[in-house]
Specification:
This protein is an all-alpha fold and about 190 residues long. It has 8 helices and no strands. Helix 4 runs antiparallel to helix 5. The two termini are about 20 Å apart.
Amino acid sequence: MNKQEMLDKAYKQGFDGERNVRGCAQCALAGVQDALNIRNDFVYKAASGLAGGAGECIDGLCGGYSGGIMAMSLFFGRTREEEASTKGREDKYVSFRMAAALHDTFMEKYGTVICSAIHKKIYGRAFNLRDDEQKQQFRDAGAHEREDGCCAVVGDGARWATELILKEIEEKGLKLEDFEDLSYPKT
């Protein structure tokens, strides 16, 4: 699969995941994992509570953004074993730089990385997703049906994170195959 096909797959998997399964952070993360053929079910599980600005509270980070950061950090973050080493510090700052780049891209398109503010931009208002009536209003506004709704935001997060990962791999002279050990469980 070439780079453009990977980016397209990341977007589609993120978009379709949010439309059909829900859980914006998990769907963005899964979009990246599927596009790059790295599947880590523990990292996917760890993103569970990040949906809807974390716990559907909507005042936190957009799940498309936070899931993208998790995906990038899986590739270029530090491990506990490395945390006090020079390599650990370097890896930490690579993940910071990548998260900042994703932030800037979200800011360019959406003007924010906050879930409720993205709601306002797309739907004209924010929805309290912990209130059943407002959650239904969110659905009725096309949250998972509109081509420019939350599914697209998740798709964007997956595509942009994938692009940043591929760029970092290229700049470091690595290959995608160098990251096969990130998959878990092992197949």
